[in-house]
Amino acid sequence: MKLSKTSEYALRILIYMSQSPDQLYTAKQLVKELKVSDKYLRRLMTDLSKSGFIRSIQGRDGGYTFIKGPDEIMLYDIIDSVEGMDKLNGCLLGFESCSSSNPCAMHYLWMNLRTDLNKVFRETKLSDMDFNKILRY
Amino acid sequence: MKLSKTSEYALRILIYMSQSPDQLYTAKQLVKELKVSDKYLRRLMTDLSKSGFIRSIQGRDGGYTFIKGPDEIMLYDIIDSVEGMDKLNGCLLGFESCSSSNPCAMHYLWMNLRTDLNKVFRETKLSDMDFNKILRY
DNA sequence: ACTATATACTACCTCGTTGTATTATTTACT
DNA sequence: AGTAAATAATACAACGAGGTAGTATATAGT
Hints:
Two copies of one chain form a homodimer. By secondary structure, the first copy, chain A, is mainly alpha-helical.
């Protein structure tokens, strides 16, 4: 029912950047706009570039820019890359052995809910975000 | 998208106990059946009795039994008492200032999903659980 | 009163997540 | 070549959730 801070930040950053996807964003700029700590953001940006969402350009006049277009990136992909979407899809009661053939008491109830959750995150693109509503802090 | 371990355990325990709600359950018995660590379960049971779901009976021949009937306890109440349902209902992007009048880019998307989640947990009773599907471990 | 068996309470330990500090590397410009 | 401005990488600190140990307290049966 809640994402990790890392997912929060990743989404914040990429949603923010997708306002003008061709622009080169510096860490300094993102830190200022999004109020994520400098060091933490930089580390996260490295992860995001390793995951292939953005390219990092080192050196003077460097920064970060998109590789894929925001219309090619699903919210699911972002969350999956930073915290693992499968973690969120386990048994709600924490039973290792829970499955459709051996369901726990809440299995079908939870399955329906999480199917909807997954569907939305799988089908929503970064570019579907409403850019009139970019909060900063 | 996931509950805390404490919520998992609380649900496990109460769902298990609601199989025969008038029975007196000892910690030892619950530990054995549900594979939750002895000390942790005991501490959690104290919390659950303070929250008014169960009564604890100390001393020899003591144990735990329901106060309210399982048809009076909503899943929402259990989760809310052990981890605070409000924590799960915050802004998905972690913006403090996010609200309907000042929404973040994902506000309405997330609002719809979490409304469904809340609805199900608010409307589902402990006694609605399928007791043919009580997994133990 | 004593004992066995149960819960209550307090303090501590462990570990993953979050956040910070420091140093190294890369690149454009002059 | 030298400098300034940017990212990369690594190590470590702080915190909270989860889990454990040990002691105190309560109660039924004898």
